[in-house]
């Protein structure tokens, strides 16, 4: 099973068919070759092995990001104690 953290598109390179995404503060370039619809800066996407698989709703993305942040905070607190 693979979990994908929603990533926000921060740059689009139409010529290379790629986008730069921000995933919880980490930026990386990923391929948009598999997308049938155009991507724009600000869109939220799910990525699998370096490819954008689909675009997701901003509210759904934010809910997922909030849950991941909550998990990270709990794990960090457990590591301290």
Plain-language structure description:
By secondary structure, this protein is an alpha+beta fold. The chain has one domain: Roll (SH3 type barrels). It contains one helix and five strands. The protein has a five-stranded antiparallel β-sheet. Strand 2 and strand 3 form a beta hairpin. It starts with 6 loop residues before the first strand and ends with a helix. 15% of the residues are buried. The mean pLDDT is 92. Belongs to the HupF/HypC family.
Question: Which features characterize this protein?
Answer:
81 residues; alpha+beta; 1 helix; 28% helix; 37% strand; carbon dioxide binding; iron ion binding; Hydrogenase_HupF/HypC; Hydrogenase assembly chaperone hypC/hupF
């Amino acid at each position: 099973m693979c979990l994908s953290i929603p990533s926000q598109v921060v740059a689009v390179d139409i010529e290379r068919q790629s986008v730069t995404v921000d995933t919880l503060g980490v930026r990386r370039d990923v391929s948009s070759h598999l997308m049938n619809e155009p991507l724009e800066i600000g869109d939220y996407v799910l990525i699998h092995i370096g490819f954008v698989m689909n675009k997701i709703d901003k509210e759904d993305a934010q809910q997922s990001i909030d849950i991941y942040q909550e998990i990270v905070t709990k794990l960090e607190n457990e590591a301290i104690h």
